Amino acid sequence: MPSSRRKQRKQRKHPYRRLHLPDNAPFELKPSPGKGWGAFATRPIKTGEVILQESPYFAVPHFTVPYVVEDATRLRLAMALGFWRLTADQLQQFNLLRKHESAQFPDNVTALCNSFTLDAVDGEHQNRGIFPLQSRFHHSCVPNSRVSPSGEQQRSLSRIATRDISQGEEITFCYLPLLEYNTRRERQLALVELVCKCEACLPGTPFQEASDMRRRLLHGLHYFLTGRDIDGKKLSDDSSPIIFPELKRAAENREITRP
């Protein structure tokens, strides 16, 4: 049997073919060259249109990495309880998910690499939700969608088009908000397990160079106006996007008045 026919047969039997998509979903799951399976628009999608709204199967406490022993124990218990509460259909759907193109998750905790942070309901404690479909969309440093909390108590996630998306185009989003302000080199250091091949990551092109310049400018403006980095933290003089120490300290102390 020719290799192309074997490949087509393998794709038809792929577990993602059995994932339950909403009846009105404007996308389908299919192979994305070099990236496993991704989501592709089945019709034109307008800017601002909701592509997918999904509630989590369950949520677990969000801990920073590396975990301390107590956090790891609580996390495993929360994951075990979450899976125990799943319906038979939900468990069957979760078991269809893959870490990479064909590898299953080695354990339940590893599945958190496909989870999303939910807004803190009490203003302090955040959770991470397991979203089987939202986690099927690939990363791009030049994305065409974003995810935003929605629904009751902001417990659901809506995927919204940030620009017009053509039929057949892959639907992508930026995995980490910080990356939107990082240069190509900074993104490579942050995404150690991901090789991005979007326009902004192809080295030496006019688009990539202009993208880096734009991101440096936006990063500096954000720090200048807020006195903090994107994650809300102060940076050292060596890593700050503001190269003048006096100006940096003035921004951090909120001593800069706006006209």
Automatic annotation (TrEMBL):
Annotated ranges, domain SET: 25-176
Q: Which organism is it from?
A: Ustilaginoidea virens (Rice false smut fungus)
**UniProt superkingdom:** Eukaryota
Composition skew (Basic residues), residue ranges: 1-19
Q: What is this protein called?
A: SET domain-containing protein
Chain residue ranges for the region called Disordered = 1-29
Family matches, as PROSITE patterns: SET
Q: Which InterPro entries match?
A: SET_dom (IPR001214), SET_dom_sf (IPR046341), SET_domain_protein (IPR053185)
